[in-house]
Every structure is written in structure tokens, then in C-alpha cells.
Specification:
The complex is a heterodimer of chains A (about 180) and B (about 500). Chain A is an alpha/beta fold. Chain A has six helices and five strands. In chain A, helix 2 (about 20-40) runs parallel beside helix 6. The chains are: A alpha/beta (about 180), B alpha+beta (about 500).
């Protein structure tokens, strides 16, 4: 294990070795996000993720935000275990009728001020599951949504970009009021 | 001892069903088949319904023969299979929830996916006009009783602490030790089988690819092969080989993620950090090669929709080389970290007998002595033309499930490079023509988690009925057994080592 840790010390940050074009986007977002997040929320943004019947693809990409390439914790963005610790509810899935009650209760358990981010095409309006007897059809049918991040599933960069635009908007509305 | 061929001869063979036979049988043959499942030579592959018919798919574990028996039940009742064969139990409860078809003499008649939130009962029962409104109030769900000692209960979910899917776990513990775990699932039920009715094949494969996102390739693959079996289409070679490449990349990415996540649930986050970097490399290569990180909507009936160019090949090779170069150090790290081994060895045991009884596929089965792999038997192209091993262990603990994944990562690396070296040229698909007569097809595809079964009937270019059976159906119940006598704190570790799909099971 020591050898592996030692190698990691000298290998340099992985972000620089990222092979795709996304790398620059991540860097760009990183700088902007840091600024906006600090102004509005100090150094931290706590997110509670809730799956209301997604196919689990969105969960995979939200998970990826924590890998060494995206490393969202460096911006103070953390995924927390309880809605009572959260600033943001990140909701995936078309909202199945079997999850509607749990979504409402999780929302109630989140302290104000709070924002709701709906992730994925089916969280917007039910997506390809719209019209089913078992599906409500979109997060905004149940709780107020501040932002939709489209995609099936949205890639990690798109999710990060979405969080940034949310912060920008809330910062602006705070300065108006 | 009868064979599945003998069983088929007892019934009326259905025409236009492929590639395996289906026969309509009477109640006595149905009961005979159910009782025979309990003997252990045959395993249950699936149990699904139509408004007044039940179907049961059976595989002979020795010969890998597959057959479907069907029973008409105009009185909406059929002899229980789960009375003989416990793996059928949750499927029977679902059949009742969706179709109102009840299993006579079933040991458990509680609902499963119906939480009385739909506003309607038996939603797939039949056409309009037959609608039965849900009762305005129902009794609370009865969890199984626990007696003796002074146990306490811990209720977890449906909203969990991590970024995972929703489900409810009811633990009964005595001190730290779990006496019983009872799962309650169905929270992610989206009614996909209902949406399939009347859908075009195009929409059908899109829905299939969204049954369980981590297996989006495998589901689209299974759906497409079932449709091709029904319509007797021959897929061009290049598409056949590229499909296998997609499937192996999906398996590789998922196993890498799982190995890291299991170690993370034993508080060893270093492994997760490294494994997730490799996983991300594979996903980025997939994005360059096929235009989508999870390779969604690439496989369609008739072939595939996007070709692999040189750029894509180079990206995949680069990612595979990196996994090759880094993975062995990670295996060594896993194997030589005593504090990690202390958590995984001997934890969450599944006996071979239980795994065999449930016909558990994937790493859950293969870590407990069941060698089944759908790529090998019944098999499908191009795997009959590729060299690969199916790793099997007997220990049945978390450690064994990690090792199966490690060995399968190595096999994936070998398979992907074999495929890319020998990739044939030619067209990417064949046109799918509508057939006037109803035709039925089924397919069994090895996803990263285990064998996915799809059965469908196509009528005039539209899907009349489609059933998709996730491997998790036969793995979830084993998790209840695996956690018994372990401490509550080891549940996340055990759960992750199974990594069953909630969405795939709930459908």
C-alpha cells in the first residue's frame, strides 16, 4: 500500500491526465463554481440525493462526481446522508407513485432555505415512463423544482454545470431582495 | 427422469416461438413441472403472466436446454409454483399485483410491488372497462413475525443514506447480530410491462434499456435478440461482434466500480478512489467510441446504430491498457490489506445449496459454486468463437464475490482485445420488417450482474406483450439469508457485494 500511496504522491493530480475535451470544461466550471458557492453559502453546499424510481443510470453519474477527475468535494460540495443536513435535494426518476410519499416527506425534512434540483429527462416530465399507471410524471408535480438538468443520464460535467447555474441564480435573487 | 423435451410433448406446442419451444399444458403437467423444479435438476428462469395465462420458463442445468410451459387460467387462478420452489414466490406475488392471477396454495399472499398507491388494482389485467379501483384504505403491510428473546427492530428506507436506489429493509436484531432481514421492494415500480403493450420495437428497446441503467447494454441486447428470434432475423457479423464489445465494456466498468465500492463499504476508500478512476477511463472511452458514456440506445433490433471508427478503437485500447497496467497493483493491495480482509472474509455467506436452489446467476451464484454463465450455455454468438473462462469459487462470502469480479475484469480485458483484433467488416444491421402474424421470441443474455431474460410477442410490428426478468429476482432473497448472524454494521458491505438492482426487480 505504501508503494501505491508513494506513486500517487509523485504522479500528480489525475485531473491533468484526463483524456477528453471535458477536462477544460471541468476546470472552467471549477473556478466559477468556487466563487459563486462561497459568496452564497460560504465554503459548503450539502446535497441529499433522492431516487424516486430512476433506472439507476443517473445515480451512476452522480456517483462519478466524487471520482478523482471531478472531485466535487474540492468545491465544498458534499453528499450528505440525511435531508436534515442538506441545502439541496437532488432528485432523479419520474417519481413513481410508490415513492411520492417518501419524496414529500424528505422535502419536509429538509430545512429552509433549500433548493430542489431534478436530474435526468424522466425527472422533468416522466420521460419515457410518462403515462404509466405507476408514475406521477415529474418531480415538479410533487414538490417545487428550482432547476432541471436534462440528459439520459446527464454526464457528470452537465450536473456540475447545472449546480453552478443554480447557485448563480440564487445569488442574484438574494441580491435583489 | 423426464427431460424438458418430454415435458414439451405433454403439451400443445406453440408455433412461431423461438429459439426455444413453448407448450400449453394442463394444470397437472404444470404442477408436475413445479414439483420437478424442487428436485434441483431444473431451475426456474422466469414466471410471468398475461391477463388469463401464466408462463414459466425452465432451464435444465445439465444440458442448458430451455423450455416454456404455459397454463391457461380463465378463472384467474393457477397452482402455486412457490409451494415447491421458493424462488417463484416474489414473482407469484407480483403476478397477483399486476394481473389479479392468484397462486393456489401459495405460502405467502401478501402484495409485493403494489403498495396501494396506483389508484387501480391489477393494472395489467385487461383492456379498458375492466378497471378495478384500488380500495380507499388497506391494512398496513405485515412484516413476518419474530419471536423469542428480546429482539429489536431497525427500519431502513426507502430513502437510504447513500446515493442508491430506494427500498425498505426491516432488520430484527438481537444486540448487534441480525436475526432476520426482511426486504420490501417495489418502490421504483414504473409499470414498464404496461408501457410495452402496443409499443413499437423502437420504443420497446428504448424502454428495455431503461429497466436498469447499469445494465442498459445488456437489456437492449436481450430485448433485441428476443425480437430477432421472434422475427427470425440474422444480424450481420460486425454488429454481432460490436454488441459483445459493448457488453464487455459495460461489465468491465461495473465490476471496477463495484470492487471499489465494496472496499469503501469496509472503510477502505483508497481502493475506491483508484477503481473509480479506471471506471471513469472506460466510460470516457465508451463516450468517444459510441457517443454515450453508458452506451445507451446503441443496440437495436436488427443490429446496432453506431459504428466503431479508428478514433474510438484507439480510445478503448488506451483505456484498456491503463486498466491492464494499474489493476494488478490494486489486486495486490486488496489481497495484502489484513484489515480489509478481516471485513470481507467469512462475511455474508451464501451456501452452495441455497445458490443452486435459487438458480442465482452472476457473481452471486459463481461465488457460491454455481458455474452458470449464459454466454457459455446456452451461449450466443460471438462468444462461441472467443476464448474465456468462467471463474467459480465455493466460499460464498463477500471476499469470494470480490474475487469473482476481479477474475471477470481480467476476462473482460482479454475478451475486449480479442474482439477488437478480430472485428469483422460489413453492414451494421438488417431492416426489421413487420410480420402480420403474431410471433414470439425470447433471449437470455449475461449482463454484469447475471442472466437477463426477455420474452416477447410481436403482432403486426407492435409489441403485444413483453416480460423482462432481471437477475436480481433470484439474488435479492439470498441477501436476506447472507446477512443472518452477521452484525448490522456489515449490512452495507454485504449489500454492495450483491449489488442487486432495485429498478430491474421492481420494473
Amino acid at each position: 500500500m505504501r508503494k501505491l500511496l508513494f506513486q500517487s504522491l509523485f504522479r500528480g493530480p489525475l485531473t491533468e491526465q484526463a483524456p477528453s475535451l471535458d477536462e477544460t470544461a471541468v476546470e472552467e466550471l471549477a473556478a466559477a463554481f468556487k466563487h459563486a458557492a462561497r459568496r452564497r453559502l460560504g465554503r459548503s453546499l450539502s446535497i441529499r440525493e433522492i431516487d424516486t424510481g430512476s433506472c439507476n443510470a443517473c445515480e451512476l453519474e452522480i456517483h462519478a462526481l466524487n471520482n478523482a477527475y471531478y472531485d466535487v468535494e474540492r468545491f465544498g460540495i458534499r453528499f450528505v446522508a440525511s435531508p436534515r443536513h442538506a441545502d439541496v435535494l437532488m432528485v432523479t426518476g419520474p417519481v413513481t407513485k410508490n415513492m411520492r410519499d417518501a419524496l414529500e416527506r424528505t422535502h419536509q425534512a429538509t430545512p429552509d432555505p433549500k433548493w430542489v434540483v431534478a436530474v435526468g429527462d424522466c425527472a422533468r416530465d416522466g420521460g419515457c415512463f410518462a403515462g404509466s399507471y405507476a408514475v406521477v410524471g415529474g418531480v415538479s408535480q410533487v414538490i417545487p423544482v428550482d432547476l432541471h438538468i436534462p440528459g439520459c443520464p446527464p454526464p457528470p460535467v452537465a450536473i456540475l454545470r447545472g449546480l453552478l447555474s443554480l447557485l448563480d441564480r440564487t445569488a442574484k435573487s438574494a441580491s435583489i431582495t | 427422469m423426464p427431460s424438458l423435451i418430454d415435458l414439451m410433448l405433454e403439451g400443445r406446442k406453440v408455433q412461431q416461438h423461438g429459439p426455444w419451444p413453448r407448450a400449453v399444458v394442463d394444470a397437472s403437467i404444470w404442477q408436475f413441472a413445479a414439483a420437478e423444479l424442487a428436485q434441483g435438476r431444473w431451475s426456474l428462469l422466469g414466471l410471468w403472466g398475461e391477463p388469463s395465462t401464466v408462463h414459466m420458463a425452465i432451464i435444465d442445468r445439465g444440458s442448458a436446454d430451455i423450455a416454456v410451459v404455459s397454463l391457461d387460467c380463465p378463472d384467474r387462478a393457477y397452482p402455486s409454483v412457490s409451494r415447491h420452489c421458493p424462488p417463484a414466490l416474489r414473482l407469484e406475488r407480483t403476478l397477483n399485483d399486476l394481473f389479479g392471477l392468484s397462486a393456489k396454495d401459495s405460502p405467502d399472499t401478501r402484495p409485493w410491488v403494489d403498495h396501494n398507491c396506483w389508484g387501480v388494482r391489477f393494472p395489467l389485467r385487461d383492456s379498458l372497462g375492466d378497471r378495478i379501483d384500488a380500495p380507499s384504505t388497506t391494512a398496513p403491510y405485515r412484516f413476518l413475525p419474530v419471536e423469542g428473546g428480546s429482539p429489536h427492530q431497525i427500519a431502513v428506507g426507502p430513502v437510504h443514506a447513500g446515493i442508491i436506489e430506494p427500498g425498505h429493509f426491516r432488520f430484527t436484531a438481537s444486540g448487534e447480530t441480525v436475526v432476520r432481514l426482511e426486504q420490501r421492494l417495489g418502490y421504483t415500480h414504473k409499470g414498464i410491462e404496461g408501457l410495452m403493450r402496443g409499443a413499437s420495437l423502437e420504443r420497446g428497446v428504448q424502454l428495455a434499456g431503461r429497466v436498469s441503467g447499469d445494465s442498459t447494454v445488456a437489456y437492449a441486447y436481450a430485448f433485441s435478440r428476443a425480437a430477432e428470434a421472434a422475427l427470425q432475423l440474422v444480424v450481420p457479423d460486425r454488429a454481432v461482434w460490436l454488441r459483445a464489445l459493448l457488453a464487455e465494456l459495460e461489465r468491465l466498468a461495473n465490476h471496477l466500480g463495484d470492487i471499489g465500492a465494496i472496499c469503501n463499504d469496509a472503510s477502505f476508500s483508497l481502493m475506491q478512489a483508484h477503481c473509480n478512476v479506471l471506471r471513469e477511463d472506460v466510460l470516457r472511452a465508451a463516450n468517444i467510441a459510441f457517443g454515450h458514456r453508458l452506451m445507451r440506445d446503441v443496440i437495436v433490433p436488427g443490429g446496432i446504430v453506431c459504428d466503431l471508427d479508428e478514433n474510438g478503437q484507439a480510445a478503448i485500447r488506451a483505456a484498456l491498457d491503463k486498466v491492464h497496467a494499474r489493476f494488478s497493483a490494486l489486486i495486490e493491495l486488496y489481497d495484502n490489506t489484513a484489515s480489509l480482509q478481516d471485513r470481507t472474509v467469512g462475511t455474508g455467506m451464501v451456501s452452495s445449496a441455497l445458490a443452486r436452489q435459487y438458480g442465482a446467476g452472476g457473481y452471486v451464484g459463481r461465488a457460491s459454486g454455481c458455474a452458470f454463465d449464459a454466454r457459455r450455455a446456452p451461449g450466443y454468438p460471438p462468444y462461441d468463437d472467443l476464448r474465456f473462462e468462467v471463474p467459480v469459487l465455493d466460499e460464498g462470502d463477500v471476499n469470494a464475490r470480490v474475487w469473482i469480479r476481479i477474475r471477470e475484469v481480467e476476462q473482460c480485458l482479454s475478451l475486449t482485445s480479442q474482439i477488437m483484433d478480430r472485428l469483422p467488416g460489413g453492414p451494421l444491421g438488417v431492416p426489421v420488417a413487420a410480420e402480420a402474424r403474431p410471433r414470439e421470441g425470447m433471449a437470455l443474455i449475461e449482463g454484469f450482474r447475471g442472466d437477463i431474460m426477455v420474452w416477447l410477442r410481436i403482432d403486426n410490428g407492435r409489441i403485444d406483450r413483453c416480460h423482462l426478468r432481471d437477475p436480481s429476482w433470484f439474488q435479492w432473497p439470498l441477501l436476506e439469508a447472507a446477512i443472518k448472524d452477521n452484525i448490522v454494521a456489515d449490512f452495507p458491505l454485504c449489500n454492495k457485494s450483491f449489488n442487486c438492482s432495485y429498478s430491474g426487480q421492481d420494473l
